[in-house]
TrEMBL record:
EC number, as in UniProt: 5.3.1.6
Function of the protein: Catalyzes the reversible conversion of ribose-5-phosphate to ribulose 5-phosphate.
Family: Belongs to the ribose 5-phosphate isomerase family.
Quaternary data: Homodimer.
Name of the protein in its database record: Ribose-5-phosphate isomerase A
Length: 230
């Protein structure tokens, strides 16, 4: 199973996060994703709120994002109050040449997908190690604990190799903010992300999977501090 790239420097992530935060304009209601790259975008939105009086409201995708937004001084709202968002900014575990994305390395992809689909514009922030011609990263799948074995069987029938994500070797499973377990499923190279997305969505007991097909733009942070918009 492919590990997440731990070598990407935070400078690349910071460049991407700060550049995407510049998309946020007065009066917007935005979605804030989860992870170390989005954390830079949250910090920058907060800086603009505090120093420039930026007028924004944000919906968060996880407890992690909520804590970061509160620390940074970003005013929060909810999807119940603002069901349509102007913009959502989020990270990625891998992005292919057609801007299909795999997310869920932080076990937050269910709420992230709800927020991404509530937004008029969905922008992904990533360091360049995340870019790949085709998707070949494992697919995080949030699973109802009661249906764990049933889902395991179904993803094996789809050609996947499932593994319940553990908090550590000694600890129990990772539990999502929604109270579910995460099954990381290796499919090798994913030739048809839309087809696999549909098949995973049809598995009984799957709450949500980490294939995102609705990305509008990707802000890619490079080693030299530049940002390419794809
Ligand atoms: C959380 C995610 C993250 O956005 C993804 O794992 C990327 O994280 P990072 O920016 O720390 O590399 O999908 O569920």
């Amino acid at each position: 199973m492919k590990e997440r790239n731990a070598n990407a420097s935070s400078a690349e992530k910071q460049a991407a996060g700060i550049a995407a935060a510049d998309l946020v304009k007065d009066g917007m209601v935005i979605g804030l994703g989860t992870g170390s790259t989005t954390a830079f975008a949250i910090a920058e939105v907060g800086r603009r709120v505090r120093e420039e009086g930026l007028d924004v409201l944000a919906v968060v995708t996880s407890y992690q994002a909520e804590m970061l937004a509160i620390e940074a001084g970003v005013p929060l709202t909810s999807l119940a109050e603002h069901p349509v968002l102007d913009l959502a900014i989020d990270g990625a575990d891998q992005v292919d040449a057609n801007l299909n994305v795999i997310k869920g390395g932080g076990a937050a992809h269910t709420r992230e997908k709800v927020v991404a689909h509530s937004a008029k514009r969905f922008v992904v922030v990533a360091d360049d190690s995340k870019m790949s011609e085709k998707l070949e990263h494992f697919v995080p799948v949030e699973v109802l604990p009661y249906a764990r074995d049933l889902v395991k069987q179904q993803v094996i029938e789809l050609g996947g190799t499932p593994q319940i994500r553990l908090a550590s070797r000694k600890d129990g499973p990772v539990i999502s903010d929604n109270g579910n377990v995460i099954m990381d499923v290796e499919f090798g190279t994913i030739e048809n992300p839309a087809e696999l997305s549909q098949k995973l969505s049809m598995c009984v007991g799957v709450v949500e999977h980490g294939i995102f097909l609705n990305t509008d733009e990707v802000y890619v942070g490079r080693k030299d501090g530049s940002v390419e918009i794809i």
